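Q: What would this chain look like folded?
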Amino acid sequence: MTTPPTADTAAELADALTRAMKRIRRQTMHRLEPYGITPAQARALRTLAHAPGCDEGPGAPMRLSDLAERLRIAPRSATAVVDALEEADLVARTPDPADRRAVRVVLTDAGRAALERIGQVRHEVARDYFDPVSRAEQEALLQALRAAEAAYESATPPGRPAPR
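A: My prediction, written as structure tokens:
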């Protein structure tokens, strides 16, 4: 059993993670810009491509409401992201055969090609940021973040803020 960090250590860790994510996000945004893709759009494309439970294979149609839930954003925000992706011909909307009121979103061939570029950019940005850190330290950080995320997820009911 590990000893919980002090409040100062936990706060410093949270600040360091926030700074790291801002820098990684900024670099990702900068490197995706030539492709006309925002980080939010990249996240949506990756979610569509790797959605768990899609029996029809990678990139199978997903309900717009399910996409919003998986992205943890409001449905109207998901609609705005999908509007931009559809305008860029990276996704297409299709009617849901099980529910006439629902819409499904599917990747297009251009969307699958964009995913390859996104994957390259993510790899480059991560490598640039984490290369100065030893492999062992990277593994330890990943393990710690996975444990923290698992604990958070198990203690937080869906749609509710984390407990104190």
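DSSP finds six helices and three strands in the chain.
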